[in-house]
Specification:
Chain lengths: 480, 200
């Protein structure tokens, strides 16, 4: 059944919410386990479903790209739930205050996941917009979940205001599209739209690009990211940096390929300018950050710039390259965030210089963090290098050699600031009273799996090949 | 002819009034006054819907926005005693920048509206205001139905309500455990961080 993964996610959310009523405080950790089992079931349902097709009269369509996005999103949510469990169960050395209501947390998280999965499968403006809202509005609450932390509240409020602004731009753009074409079906709009290029068309492009850019943290629409990433509870920061980024990419796919697909070839220059500013500004600002979560926010902004290279052209390989790099990015970024969350659980610290001497207090975690950071910077043979290589080759084959050169320079700059963290871990001595920092089994297993992913995805190209084979004809059917 | 003229006159009357109300929402320095003016804007918008022949939409507009949301806002203002709270005066550069951006947006969007040929309804179907038909299409799972967005919105409402309640709940006292807000027995184990529990 086509919609089974989405239905399982929603059902798990409702089950968690209801079952929490009958649990005592001692057994309430079970809600996390139920969430994990539900996500596993959803993942199994998605993996075993090889059919593509439409439901509900064409309002819900599963195609190759939607299928891959579903897999990526469930993976991101699954790891996030594992990362949240220690914090929410109070199984930490340093207590994170004001973070409670476990069942509600998992439930809201699952609802955002369902919204994201509906978004990439939606085929008409209304479903598209409401699933975008389902993916973002509950996220405000998650960002503000730490109730006695002023920063968390600030993060929630800033997120509400800026995301409301970008949503209003998106709705405005959608209204213009409907006015121009008289259609609500995205494919139909994409077919008719090239006949209506005029002022209103450009206005709609501006509105939708600004809205999509804000969801995907493209400079200059990235302003919400740093404060929200810093203030949100750390597992939610991890979730924002991967799942929210993934849904931003899905949104860009729907807008740029499906709606503006016919125009995208002429718009490549615009995309390349956005890509250049995004990666350059993200990298430059990341250099001067001291808080590791803010640092990761700007790192995520610069990564968004690399993703944009895949829209140049456009050609089929770009779709596969972006999907593959999203997989690599999810695995690598969650690998870094596992370390950040573990370190915060055990020491309560989140400044970059607090990581000094980690190579002696816990050598294995320091090594895994280092490898993940190297992968983000794109050092061969790690997966980050392979992912970036595919994206750069897309830009190169589209003729944007200056952009490839700029991206390569940016990768080098990013290596500098990732090395800042590594320098703290490996060169600076630990505090005099530092002891070995233990790790819980959950986090150790998660980090080991993510680490294996970071290494294996770079060496074994099977996954890229299967993504490429699955999505080879996707773009052609849109742009015919 | 007369009906046509009345329509036109009414339209411009309502639109102008709504604009005046909207401006007073923005420029009023008292929150309660702004909220009442907002109520006026929304009610007048309902009037515009009636002129367009969408009585049902007008009814929903009055019920939901005028009757529900604005009343909630007014309640919030009165309960928090912020009715005469003055907001900060923006600095001159900020005010100028805001005015500039707003003006550019206004000029651009009106230029777009006057220069673009917007499509009339291409299906040629008569706009009906049949509540039975609206209700049916909301729950219809065929190609003309909207059951999927309808269900997604209901999930959204549920998620937003849960999130809102969690954030708005009273913060437990510092001595209380954090996992459930401390209102349940059996939480004693969580009152100490793990390190102390291990030693104990």
């Amino acid at each position: 059944m086509l919609m089974l993964p989405e239905l399982l996610v929603v059902a798990t959310a409702l089950v968690v919410l209801v079952i929490d009523l009958f649990l005592s405080e001692r057994t309430r950790w079970l809600t996390g386990l139920i969430t994990l089992l539900g996500l596993l079931a959803a993942m199994a349902a998605a993996c075993t479903n090889t059919m593509h097709g439409a439901l509900l009269g064409g309002r819900f369509v599963v195609d190759a790209v939607a299928w891959w996005f579903d897999i990526l999103l469930i993976l991101a949510a699954f790891v996030t739930v594992i990362l949240s469990m220690d914090v929410l169960n109070g199984n930490t050395r340093v207590r994170m205050r004001g973070l409670g209501a476990r069942a509600e947390y998992y439930c809201v998280l699952l609802f955002t996941l369902a919204g994201m999965m509906f978004l990439i499968s939606s085929r008409d403006l209304i479903t598209f917009y409401v699933s975008l809202e389902l993916a973002t509005i509950p996220m405000f609450a998650l960002a503000a979940w730490r109730r006695d932390d002023a920063r968390s509240g600030e993060a929630g409020l800033k997120y509400v205001i800026l995301a409301a602004l970008s949503s209003s731009l998106i709705v405005y753009g959608m209204a213009l599209l409907y006015g121009l074409t008289g259609q609500t079906n995205l494919d139909a709009i994409g077919r008719i739209l090239p006949n209506h290029v005029g002022p209103a068309f450009w206005f709609a492009v501006a509105m939708l690009v600004a809205g999509a850019g804000s969801k995907f943290t493209v400079v200059p629409f990235h302003f919400w990211a740093a404060d929200v990433y810093q203030g949100a509870p750390t597992p939610i920061t991890a979730y924002l940096s991967v799942a929210s980024k993934c849904v931003g990419l899905a949104f860009m796919f729907q807008v740029l390929f499906r709606i503006f697909g016919g125009w995208l070839h002429d718009g490549s220059l615009l995309v390349s300018i956005f890509a250049a500013t995004t990666m350059t500004l993200g990298n430059t600002v990341a250099i001067v950050q001291h808080n590791i979560k803010r640092f990761m926010a700007f790192s995520a902004v610069s990564q968004a710039g690399y993703f944009l290279l895949g829209f140049l052209g456009p050609n089929e390989a770009g779709v596969a390259a972006m999907l593959f790099y999203m997989l690599v990015y999810i695995v690598t970024n969650l690998g870094v965030f596992t370390c950040i969350i573990w370190y915060q659980n055990e020491t309560g610290r989140e400044e970059i210089e607090d990581y000094r001497g980690l190579s002696q207090t816990n050598p294995i975690m320091a090594l895994m963090m280092m490898v993940s950071l190297f992968s983000l910077a794109g050092i061969p043979p790690l997966s980050g290098f392979v992912g970036k290589f595919f994206l750069f080759s897309i830009a190169s084959s589209a003729g944007y050699h200056w952009l490839v050169a700029l991206a390569a320079v940016n990768s080098t700059v990013s290596l500098y600031y990732y090395l800042r963290v590594i320098r703290q871990m490996y060169i600076e001595p630990p505090d005099a009273d530092a002891r070995r920092i233990p790790i819980t089994k959950k986090l150790a297993v998660t980090e080991a799996f993510l680490f294996a992913g970071v290494v294996i995805l770079g060496i074994v190209p099977t996954l890229y090949e299967s993504i490429h084979a699955d999505t080879a004809t996707w773009l052609a059917t849109l742009l015919r | 002819m007369i009906v046509q003229a009345t329509h036109t006159v009414l339209f411009y009357l309502i639109a102008a009034l709504a604009l005046v109300m909207a401006l007073s929402v923005v420029f009023s320095r008292k929150l309660l006054r702004a909220a009442i003016a907002l109520m006026g804007v929304l009610a007048l918008t309902a009037g515009l819907y009636i002129l367009l022949g969408a009585e049902f939409l007008a009814g929903v507009q009055v019920l939901v926005y005028v009757g529900g949301i604005v009343v909630l806002i007014v309640f919030a203002i009165m309960l928090t005693r912020s009715s005469d709270l003055l907001e900060d005066q923006p600095t001159l550069p900020r005010a100028l920048l805001g005015a500039f951006v707003g003006l550019v947006f206004l000029v651009m969007s009106s230029a777009v509206f006057f220069s673009s040929p917007f499509q009339a309804d291409t299906s040629g179907a008569q706009v009906t205001d049949d509540t039975v038909a609206i209700g049916r299409s909301l729950l219809d799972y065929g190609p003309k139905g909207y059951v999927l967005p309808f269900e997604i919105i209901s999930l959204l409402l549920l998620a937003a309500a849960i999130g809102g309640i969690v954030i708005a709940r009273k913060i437990p006292a510092p001595s209380q455990p954090f996992t459930s807000g401390g209102d349940l027995p059996g939480e004693a184990d969580f009152t100490q961080p793990r390190s102390q529990r291990e030693e104990a």
